[in-house]
Write a structure and sequence with these properties.
By secondary structure, the chain is mainly alpha-helical. It has 2 helices and no strands.
């Protein structure tokens, strides 16, 4: 099989140690995804064996994935902000606290 190295354990040779980090881990942040996608687009544009139609399609797919990641990150930030605000509004209010719009009557 091309690309695979099979070691014979019975001959006494040991295989090389495996790398501790995986080279093909997916990006965890939008910035890392942007960096990886620009790198791929750069390699695609420099490769003359890929047809222009495939290059354009791959570029659009990568750009779309980046847009979706940015929208997802914005959605997550909005959810955190909304939940924090909701938690603050659910706190017990003392009777001395004025409403947000100020006192309703002079007697308050």
């Amino acid at each position: 099989m091309p690309g695979f190295i099979i070691h014979n354990i019975t001959s006494g040779t040991t295989p090389p140690p495996l790398s501790s980090s995986l080279p093909n881990t997916p990006p965890e942040t939008v910035q890392k995804l942007r960096k990886a996608s620009t790198k791929v687009i750069k390699h695609i544009q420099n490769d003359s064996t890929i047809s222009p139609k495939v290059r354009q399609s791959l570029s659009q797919i990568l750009a779309g994935g980046l847009v979706l990641a940015e929208v997802g990150a914005q959605f997550a930030e909005d959810n955190v902000r909304i939940l924090r605000r909701k938690k603050r509004s659910n706190t017990a209010k003392t009777k001395r606290r004025l409403p947000e719009m100020g006192p309703r009557l002079v007697k308050d």
